[in-house]
Specification:
alpha/beta
Amino acid sequence: MIEQSLLKAGIKNIAGVDEAGRGPCAGPLVVAAVILKDPLAKELAQVKDSKELSADQRESLYEVIISNCLSYSIIEISVTEIDLLGLHKCNIEGMRRAVNTLEINPEYVLTDGYPIPGLTTANLAVIKGDQVAISISAASILAKVYRDRIMIKLDQDYPNYGLAKHKGYITALHTAAINKHGVLPIHRKSFANISAIIQAGK
């Protein structure tokens, strides 16, 4: 575990940062940052990459992480911003915002895959970070649960699209719904599949 090495070096207040929602063609991008009280705590033993957990496990661990952190921040980036600035730029900006809005200044920042240019705090981009750094795994769970809750709520606003099921990802069900019912304000119009449907006049 990366945190173990940092703690041995006397570095505390380690922030993990991760996102949820890069791939979907609908809904916001969500980025979370979290500073765990003790990354090695037994209460966090079940924390791992959010993709390896069931929805119920993530919901349960969400509360465990909140109870065992010094500070956390969750940033929501709108479809409008994604379409205007581009997904990658929004992801980097979201990570920067998430770190900068933590109530406690971290001594070190671990991010999943992408570095954060211009961040004054020492930081490390970790390949597959949500699999090897518990702080990043914890952030991935916060981001995923938060975003899933948004998509479930949006499913109530737009009941014909199956958003609660596929969470805005490009599935056959989702594509069929868009072709039948049209493009929504929550769809990312800069994404190729949505752009193609708009150009086709659907």
